[in-house]
Design goal:
alpha+beta; eight-stranded mixed beta sheet
Length: 184
C-alpha cells in the first residue's frame, strides 16, 4: 500500500477516490446534519479546521497502512457526497473495520450499497483481508439493513461499548468473511 498510488474505484454511478483538501467544506456540512450523524458517535465539527483533521486522517490511513477511506462522488462530478472504507487494519489477522456515511439527499437510492460492494471487492481481493467488521448502533435500522443486504452477519451485542452524548451505548458487532463474500 505505502508508496503505491491510491486506488480509484468506479461503479455505474459512482467514483470512489482519494480524499483531498476540497472535501473539507463538505465534511463540515455533513458533520452538522443530525440525521446523518445521529448514530455516528462524534459531535458536529465546529470549524473547517476540525473537518480538515478528518481529511488528514483519511489520507493518513492509506499512507500509514492503517486502512483506506474513499471519498464517494457521483460519476461526472468530483463533489464529496460521502465516504466509506476500512480502518483499524490488522494485517497479522487480516481484518479491518468498515465505516461509511452519505449525504442525506442521496439516501435510499442504493448508492451506498454500490459503493460498499466496490470497496469490499477491493479489500478482499487486493488487500487480502479475511474479515471485515462493522459496529452498528442497535437503533440504526437503515445501516443494519444495508449491512445484512450485503452479507454481514450480526454476531452479538457489545454492551455499553461506547460513551456518547453523555450516556453509554450498546453496539452490535457484525462481520463478513472473505469466503462468504458474494455480490448481493
Amino acid at each position: 500500500m505505502k508508496g503505491s498510488p491510491f486506488p480509484v474505484l468506479e461503479t455505474d454511478r459512482l467514483r470512489l477516490r482519494s480524499p483531498k483538501e476540497e472535501d473539507v467544506h463538505h465534511l463540515l456540512e455533513i458533520s452538522q446534519d443530525s440525521d446523518v450523524m445521529i448514530y455516528y458517535g462524534v459531535e458536529p465539527y465546529k470549524s473547517e479546521e476540525e473537518a480538515k483533521k478528518e481529511v488528514d486522517w483519511m489520507r493518513g490511513l492509506y499512507m500509514e497502512k492503517k486502512g483506506i477511506r474513499w471519498v464517494i462522488t457521483l460519476k461526472g462530478s468530483d463533489e464529496y457526497i460521502g465516504d466509506a472504507g476500512v480502518d483499524k487494519l490488522d494485517m497479522k489477522h487480516r481484518k479491518g473495520e468498515l465505516g461509511f456515511k452519505l449525504v442525506k439527499k442521496h439516501w435510499r437510492r442504493g448508492l451506498m450499497t454500490e459503493a460498499l460492494i466496490q470497496a469490499l471487492d477491493h479489500v478482499y481481493d487486493k488487500m487480502e483481508l479475511n474479515r471485515v467488521e462493522a459496529l452498528v448502533d442497535p437503533r440504526n435500522d437503515a445501516s443494519r439493513a444495508l449491512l445484512r443486504k450485503i452479507g454481514f452477519k450480526e454476531e452479538g451485542i457489545l454492551r455499553e461499548y461506547e460513551f456518547e452524548k453523555g450516556e453509554y451505548i450498546d453496539l452490535i458487532m457484525t462481520s463478513l468473511l472473505k469466503r462468504e463474500w458474494k455480490h448481493p
